[in-house]
Amino acid sequence: MADENNDNTTEDETSPAAEAAPETPAVAEDAASEETAPEGVGEDAGTEAEQQAPAEQLSPKERRRRTRSKHSPEKARPRRSPEERHAERAAERKTKALRRRTRRSQERAKRAAAREREGVAAGVAAQAPTTPKSEGARKVRQGIVVSNKADKTITVRIDTARRHRRYEKIVRSSTTLHAHDEDNDAHEGDVVRVIESRPLSRSKRWRLVDVVERAR
Predict the structure, then answer these.
(1) Contact 144/164 with Cβ under 8 angstroms?
(2) Beta strand pairing call for 140-147 and 170-180
(3) 61-110 tens-digit pLDDT
(4) For residue range 173-215, what is the model confidence (pLDDT) as tens digits?
(5) HSE, side-chain direction, 13 A CA sphere, residue 105
(6) pTM here?
(7) Is the dihedral of CA 71, 72, 74, 80 positive or negative?
(8) Which domains does the chain have, with CATH numbers?
(9) Pairing label, strands 153-163, 140-147
(10) Is 156 exposed, middle or buried (CB count within 10 Å of its CB: 0-12, 13-18, 19+)?
(11) Of 24, 39, 60, 207, whose CB count within 10 A is highest?
């Protein structure tokens, strides 16, 4: 009985050791691998390097070129030979020429129709009675006669007073003009009213209307 117990004890004591012995190299390899290459170290380092690197400044043209280069080659336009490009340009020119001819013919037709309408309107206007041309309002000025020495001509001084736009001061000025007096009715010092008229001489563009006040 003692021998059997000793044998069982030996087997029980040696069996865990025997089972743990082959596992020791694997555990050592795992530990070594964990020490040498911890998880996420390479990825985190790469990400931090990318974040620390300054953003590359690209021109708009370069950005467009890179965007186009990312497109799939299936969507890209196939390369064409010079002959094919020339044929395509010629076909496009023919299409545009046809459109121009069509548009110009339509414009010519519209102009011809407009001329016909204008001709009809002109014929109707020619048949309608003409109205006399109305004259514009003539200027009328009031001033003082400063000279009546010339025959049928008086010199009239026109006094004006206006407020200065910036300084708000009353600015007084005067100008003289020659008026036609058919009857030599006005005398020096009279207050007269003159009206604008056609040129009567080299300096006369006005004529006497009436005498407002006689000189005393």
Answers:
(1) no
(2) unpaired
(3) 988 888 887 765 555 567 889 999 999 999 999 999 999 999 999 999 99
(4) 999 999 999 999 999 999 999 999 999 999 999 999 999 999 9
(5) 6
(6) 0.39
(7) positive
(8) 140-213 (2.40.50.140)
(9) antiparallel
(10) buried
(11) 207
Query: In this structure, how many other beta carbons lie within 10 angstroms of the beta carbon of residue 148?
Result: 19
Q: What's the token pair of residue 50?
A: 């990318």
The whole-angstrom separation of Cα 180 and Cα 153 is 5
* Integer Cα distance of 43 and 122 in angstroms: 90
Decide: residue 193, CB within 10 A, 0-12 exposed, 13-18 middle, 19+ buried: middle
Rounded Cα distance between 176 and 192, Å, is 13
| The token pair that represents 26 in the structure block | 């694997």
Q: Give the integer Cα–Cα distance in Å for 194 and 146.
A: 14
Q: How far apart are CA 137 and CA 141, in angstroms?
A: 13
Least Cα distance to 206 among 156, 159, 144, 151 occurs for 156
For residue 194 the two structure tokens come to 């003159």
Longest CA pairwise span in the chain (Å): 178
What is the C-alpha separation between 158 and 196, in angstroms, rounded?
A: 14
